[in-house]
Automatic annotation (TrEMBL):
Residues 24-419 form the ATPase AAA-type core domain. One of its GO terms (molecular function) is ATP binding. The keyword rRNA-binding does not apply. Gene3D superfamilies: P-loop containing nucleotide triphosphate hydrolases (3.40.50.300). This is ATPase AAA-type core domain-containing protein. Keywords: Plasmid.
Length: 497
């Protein structure tokens, strides 16, 4: 489970900063405080660690996915710095934590590469074990030497990696096994053993040799951060026909119709198959073939979740989502919303839908189509949503996300939404603000503020909670050194009756 993200000299964050990640993480703060910067950091970490060519990612792929890293590679670095860092913490099921960090050198936009990268395991008892780290960096070399733990006595082995990709993406089971095999052979040769002896001993050992498990930890990190999807829908780009393809939803949701087409036509097909073959007995297995049923139910569940989110906003009923397809040979697609007006079904194509409706359909589609274990980044998730509907929407998104094992990271400017936050939402809320003296971005977890417990015990979790809690915090002696900005005192004002 992903529990923390770390940023170092990244955009508005000077030095090291950590943000806690919960199943629902809410980031609040004034304009330009650093909220979107955090989301960009998470997205970059995911992309780079997955093994994309780092230079190409900043120059090309980011644009291709219709998202963009503002300011490219050099824009990621705190001004006057040449290296920025990103990292994450993953909690393992045994209670230990894996701490991964990556530093990227951006001095030359045409060659952006790994400056440092390491992975440590922290035990519940406070121990710290190296799993791998880069050593010896020679500025102009394409390779970087990596030392890793082979879970054996003696010196850790070393291996060369290409620094235009993350080490994490290179150091897989195969590479480690090969390196260990080579090291073994080398050792035998160095000891001047005769050829037959080498062969015999080598083969004898091969089966028992590799107790090394670091690649399992490496896989765990990859698994938890590989599916990060950022959604910031641009309704104008959704209102056109698009070609049908297999891409996941783009950041700007411009291919929303294609993604919905896949979901809806997949659902219809599964339904037809199920109706036709669902009860057929498979004579070989002597049982009813369940695969049609399962597939149908899986689609139905996703489609129902989608509709349950989309239905929250408008005053009229949304009966279903469907698609219209242009005649061949083009066969481009646009989704439509079947609305019920006055008891009549009206098919409303995407080209006519409201901004708010399109945004919600895009977010709902992302949440039901993302793979399990995804992290969904929703910047200003409720922009364009009526204030009275935001909390309902968030609750629903959170419910679906939990069911699908998806982590939601959202930002919002909506104070009336925050007033409705209960403990479980507050626990995942972080405040981003600029430190008065330095202008650097700072992150504070709301639940770490002093006095929050007391105020929650008082029962008021709405505006009073937010207001009193932060006020109290501001005036608490122990916290004098952290000067929170003035605007925080006013959260919830105007809702106190
Ligand atoms: N490389 C950089 N070095 C220093 N500061 C930077 C860098 N890149 C961006 N910033 C700062 O970060 C700000 C943008 O922050 P961000 O987009 O995260 O704000 P936000 O909290 O999302 O605000 P909004 O609510 O307006 O969207 C910029 O205005 C700039 O001050
Ligand atoms: Mg922003």
């Amino acid at each position: 489970m992903l529990t923390k993200i770390e940023l170092e000299n990244f955009k508005s964050f000077e030095g090291k900063h950590t943000i806690d990640i919960n199943n629902l993480t809410t980031i609040i703060g004034l304009n330009s405080s650093g909220k979107t910067n955090i989301l960009e950091g998470i997205s970059i970490l995911s992309n780079i660690s997955s093994g994309i060519d780092i230079t190409a990612f900043f120059n090309k792929y980011a644009e291709m996915a219709k998202g963009n890293i503002r300011g490219g590679a050099s824009g990621c670095c705190r001004t006057r710095k040449k290296v920025f860092g990103l990292g994450c913490t993953i909690k393992k099921s045994n209670g230990n934590s894996l701490v991964y960090s990556l530093k990227i050198d951006v001095a030359n936009e045409d060659r952006v590469y790994v400056d440092e990268e390491n992975l440590y395991e922290l035990t519940a008892e406070g121990g710290k074990h190296l799993l791998f780290k880069t050593i010896k960096k020679e500025k102009y070399k394409g390779d970087i030497v990596v030392e890793y733990d082979n879970k054996k006595r003696g010196k850790n082995p070393r291996i060369q990696c290409d620094r235009s990709y993350s080490i994490l993406s290179q150091l897989d089971q195969k590479l480690i096994l090969n390196n260990e095999t080579l090291n073994e052979v080398q050792k035998l040769i160095d000891n001047n053993e005769d050829k037959d002896y080498i062969a015999v001993n080598f083969l004898k050992d091969l089966g028992t040799k590799n107790k090394n498990t670091i690649y399992q930890d490496i896989e765990l990190i990859k698994e938890n951060i590989k599916n990060v999807q950022s959604i910031n829908p641009n309704p104008d780009k959704v209102r056109n026909y698009v070609s049908r393809d297999n891409s996941p939803i783009f950041t700007d949701a411009s291919n929303l119709s294609a993604v919905l087409d896949r979901l809806i036509s997949g659902y219809r097909m599964a339904e037809r198959r199920y109706n036709r073959y669902g009860n057929h007995v498979n004579h070989e297995k002597n049982s009813v073939d369940l695969s049609h049923k399962e597939r149908y139910e899986e689609y139905k569940k996703k489609y129902d979740m989608l509709l349950s989110i989309v239905r929250l906003l408008p005053e009229y009923e949304i009966k279903e989502l469907s698609t219209i397809i242009t005649p061949s040979p083009l066969r481009d697609v646009m989704f439509t919303c079947v609305e019920v007006h006055n008891g009549n079904d009206v098919k409303m194509p995407a080209s006519l839908l409201s901004d708010g409706t399109i945004k919600v359909i895009a977010i709902a589609t992302a949440i039901v189509t993302s793979p399990d274990n995804s992290v969904l980044l929703l910047d200003e998730f409720d922009s364009g949503t009526h204030q009275t509907k935001s909390f309902e929407l968030l609750k629903k998104l959170f419910e679906v996300a939990k069911e699908r094992n998806i982590i939601l990271v959202v930002t919002t400017h909506n104070t009336s939404l925050l007033n409705q936050y209960t403990v479980k939402y507050l626990k995942g809320t972080s405040i981003v603000f600029r430190a008065k003296e330095t202008g650097n971005s700072e992150i504070v977890n709301f639940y770490d503020l002093n006095g929050v417990e007391k105020l929650l015990a008082r029962g008021g979790l709405g505006d009073a909670a937010l207001k009193d809690g932060l006020d109290e915090y501001l005036y608490t002696q122990e916290n004098k050194e952290v000067a929170l900005p003035e605007w925080l005192q006013n959260i919830g004002e105007g809702h106190n009756g």
